[in-house]
């Protein structure tokens, strides 16, 4: 990539041309759009489907849309979905089997070509989440058969964050609001609202990204306003987390009283694991038709908050209490994830805070555990 090339920017027409160019190349373009009182991720027919003029207000247990006075398309923080929904879908068929009249059984693995996605508006925190799932699902001896092909064909357009939400804490986790160095992506955009309309600082991150950018109507820029907007966002995070040696903190507070306090509030509903962009646990289930001659195996998302998640035959669930299940989730996310995958499992998006029905705040829980660990004994 030519790092000496001049910086360029797009206007609204250029953004529309980007969506059109991706669709013409055969991509299914997925991006943020307004639906059912939230900003969700869905297929975009054009750039007009983006949530122009919409922002969000988030707090613990709270999420609502709010109107903006401008037409900004990416001036909102994370919604209830992440790109995990498309790369690691909630349900996926693994194989199907049919029994013939002579009693023989034929098993067929699902080998249909995966969707060819272009993700428009990936936040830096979510880009890190994709990198985390890359490590989990493709970085070992085996590549996940569903995630791997979908991820290999995905085109990623990052939108740097200039409007952090009330539950965002990516700056303290080192995952945003700007694009971290060395991140794998194809294009990066930074949206600014100017008197003459919307501007998008654009940079290519891959050869294919450079090819598409070369087709778009651009103009040169110094990028100063875009960089200033991202730097300003870093100072306006709604939350922060002290990420200092979280692995040791989690390992050293396994018997902390704080676990009982949070368990008294936790509904063990699993919302936090469903909205988390890095949680990856699944289970399998078999279904048959009424004749018993056709069977299918499906994989679906599971949660460590499910009572049966730790069920052992003949013994029952290993983690039967809310205390043990919440502790498992948090200590894995912030602690033993380092042992397994070499990084934290939290990217600071704040979704688990906003979408917890009782407003449990992961940053508050970490602070409480630190305070209890530091308190003098007796």
Task: Write a brief caption for the model.
By secondary structure, this protein is an alpha+beta fold. It contains 13 helices and 16 strands.
Structure commentary:
The protein has 378 residues and is α+β, with helices and mostly antiparallel strands. The chain has two domains: 8-90 and 100-234, no CATH class; 246-374, no CATH class. Helix content is 31%, strand content 24%. The chain contains 13 helices and 16 strands. The strands form four sheets. An eight-stranded mixed sheet has the order 3-2-8-9-10-11-1-12, with helices on both faces. Strands 7-6-14-13 form a four-stranded antiparallel sheet, with no helix packed on it. Strand 2 (28-35) and strand 3 form a beta hairpin. The protein is globular, with a radius of gyration of 22 Å. The relative contact order is 0.16.
Show the helix and strand layout.
Blueprint: E1 8-10, H1 12-24, E2 28-35, E3 38-43, E4 54-59, E5 62-67, H2 84-87, E6 91-99, E7 105-109, E8 117-122, H3 124-138, H4 147-152, E9 155-159, H5 170-173, E10 187-194, E11 197-204, H6 207-215, E12 219-220, H7 224-234, H8 246-252, H9 258-263, H10 271-275, E13 282-288, E14 294-301, E15 311-312, E16 316-317, H11 322-341, H12 351-354, H13 362-374
Parallel strand pairs: 2-8, 8-9, 9-10
Antiparallel strand pairs: 1-11, 1-12, 2-3, 4-5, 6-7, 6-14, 10-11, 13-14, 15-16
Helix pairs in contact: 8-11
């Amino acid at each position: 990539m030519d790092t000496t090339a001049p910086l360029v920017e797009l206007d609204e027409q250029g953004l529309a041309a980007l969506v059109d160019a991706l669709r013409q190349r055969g991509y299914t373009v997925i991006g943020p759009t307004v639906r059912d009182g939230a900003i969700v991720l869905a297929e975009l027919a054009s750039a007009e489907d983006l949530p122009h003029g919409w922002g969000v207000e988030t707090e613990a247990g709270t999420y609502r849309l709010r109107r903006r006075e401008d037409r900004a398309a990416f001036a909102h923080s994370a919604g209830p979905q992440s790109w995990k929904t498309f790369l690691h879908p909630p349900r996926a068929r693994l194989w199907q089997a049919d029994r013939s009249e002579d009693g023989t059984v034929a098993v067929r693995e699902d080998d249909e070509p995966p969707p060819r996605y272009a993700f428009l508006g990936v936040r830096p925190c979510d880009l890190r989440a994709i990198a985390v799932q890359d490590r989990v699902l493709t970085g070992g001896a085996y590549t996940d058969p569903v995630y791997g092909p979908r991820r290999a064909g995905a085109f990623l357009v990052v939108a740097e964050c200039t409007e952090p939400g009330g539950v965002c804490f990516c700056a303290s986790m080192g995952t945003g609001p700007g694009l971290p160095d060395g991140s794998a992506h194809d294009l990066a955009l930074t949206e600014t609202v100017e008197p003459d309309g919307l501007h998008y600082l654009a940079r290519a991150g891959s050869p294919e990204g450079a090819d598409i950018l070369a087709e778009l109507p651009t103009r040169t820029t110094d990028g100063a306003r875009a960089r200033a907007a991202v730097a300003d966002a870093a100072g306006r995070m709604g939350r922060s987390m002290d990420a200092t040696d979280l692995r040791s903190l989690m390992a050293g507070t396994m018997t902390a009283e704080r676990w009982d306090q949070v368990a008294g509030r936790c509904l063990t509903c699993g919302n936090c694991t469903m909205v988390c962009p890095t949680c990856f646990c699944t289970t399998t289930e078999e279904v048959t038709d009424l004749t018993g001659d056709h069977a299918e195996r499906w994989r679906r998302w599971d949660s460590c908050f499910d009572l049966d998640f730790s069920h052992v035959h003949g013994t029952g669930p290993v983690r039967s209490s809310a205390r043990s299940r919440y502790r498992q989730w948090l200590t894995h996310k912030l602690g033993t994830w380092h042992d397994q995958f070499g990084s934290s499992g939290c990217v600071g998006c704040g979704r688990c805070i906003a979408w917890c029905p009782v407003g449990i705040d992961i940053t508050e829980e970490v602070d409480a555990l630190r305070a209890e660990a530091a308190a003098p004994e007796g």
